[in-house]
Recover the amino acids of this structure.
């Protein structure tokens, strides 16, 4: 089982952090307006700029890891630090 923590860049350059078990579907939801987060609805389109994958045989464990990382990013990183995280990821690829 896989779960993901992700960061989206919205059209106003704001960053949104979330978690999901289906990354492609979730990004599409953010942009379609059907099930996207309240704060991304007014800021579409949103582009996936960063993600981390958490894999475990136990579904619950993978989800918990992704949720913990989402919380860490949202509550412990400034926007500047999130931008640095995104930049490092781009440079590693």
């Amino acid at each position: 089982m896989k779960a993901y923590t992700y960061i989206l860049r919205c059209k106003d350059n704001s960053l949104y952090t979330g978690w999901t078990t289906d990354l492609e579907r979730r990004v599409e939801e953010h942009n379609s307006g059907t099930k996207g987060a309240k704060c991304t609805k007014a800021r579409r389109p949103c582009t996936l700029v960063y993600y981390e994958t958490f894999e475990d045989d136990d579904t619950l464990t993978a989800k918990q890891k992704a949720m913990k990382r989402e919380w860490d990013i949202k509550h412990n990183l400034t926007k500047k630090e999130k931008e640095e995280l995104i930049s490092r990821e781009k440079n590693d690829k």
User: Anything to note?
Assistant: The beta strands are 2-10, 15-20, 46-55. The mean pLDDT is 92. The longest strand covers residues 46-55. The longest helix spans residues 59-76.
